[in-house]
Amino acid sequence: xxxxxxxxxxxxxxxxxxxxxxxxxxxxxxxxxxxxxxxxxxxxxxxxxxxxxxxxxxxxxxxxxxxxxxxxxxxxxxxxxxxxxxxxxxxxxxxxxxxxxxxxxxxxxxxxxxxxxxxxxxxxxxxxxxxxxxxxxxxxxxxxxxxxxxxxxxxxxxxxxxxxxxxxxxxxxxxxxxxxxxxxxxxxxxxxxxxxxxxxxxxxxxxxxxxxxxxxxxxxxxxxxxxxxxxxxxxxxxxxxxxxxxxxxxxxxxxxxxxxxxxxxxxxxxxxxxxxxxxxxxxxxxxxxxxxxxxxxxxxxxxxxxxxxxxxxxxxxxxxxxxxxxxxxxxxxxxxxxxxxxxxxxxxxxxxxxxxxxxxxxxxxxxxxxxxxxxxxxxxxxxxxxxxxxxxxxxxxxxxxxxxxxxxxxxxxxxxxxxxxxxxxxxxxxxxxx
Length: 434
Description:
Helices cover about 25% and strands about 20% of the residues. It is of the alpha+beta class. It has 2 domains: about 10-170 and about 300-330 and about 355-425, FAD/NAD(P)-binding domain, CATH 3.50.50.60; about 180-295.
């Protein structure tokens, strides 16, 4: 492959206070949070719909919990999801089509300019500051410039293109497998089983359902790497959100991996659905009604910040003086990077823990935050905080912080954390309860 030198003057959109890259659960909440605080916000999204995994990814239920009063509670209410906690998760998955409308209305604020079908492909950096992000949109390439930037791309694209230190996967570099979630309907609720995952002890006959699935896989009735069949209720009776397909060895930051993973995962939809029809009562007549626009990536880059959240932090429920996300709670859910099921024999439960401000400030830059699964943490800690409820709370806190930094014309490490915490509390967010 030869290199080509290419020069072109680009139009610059430069009157933004805060530039949010990625509109998944974290980025969506970051943009709204900053706009509600009076900032002018650019919200950049690579797909044609806002919401990320909440919409295009078909991910549900909205997993995890955080303290009361965050935008997580607001969005769950807007989506009409019963907030019945079941091992740290909302018990049923939301309606994807409704979610597309809800998140668009949520972000339809005077202070937010939304750039759909717009991808980041470079970053302009001078010293310890980002001066602009180069994007590709329908009008052609542009530079979007602001005072503070928030990388909520999931993959840490902005931080990576800025030269920040990143890590991927566990010690051997392998990452959690990719999945393509999909929805089926025409399920007979009077007979059909529900299984939320490996923490579920639901029985199928005389044995645990997941053990039954493993036995079927051992007999060749289901591929071995698909033996963890997760079937979630949705808000619509007769539907299930299926979280079962799996592609191991995928690096979601490597373009050459993506199409092969897409082919594999889409072919598995038929395999899994045929298994459901032939083996599970109530699923005999089920049919696929929708699937993710994009494959679901549990893990790619983690951007190294001023503090790296650890497994011990999340398991022991550690508190931090610079907390901005309180009582985050989800199991250490490491889907096996090298095979089926979980990477560990026993899922590790967590005590509700704090995520400190320092996890969101990448080393080497003074005007960039991260939010979502790409924040600073270890492979094990990431397996807990990567879920949507926690990412929403991250985005809200970081969006407010970015707005405050812009208004005061300061860098991220100059912000008075106590002042940020007070403003979060004034919004009704619990930060310090036991």
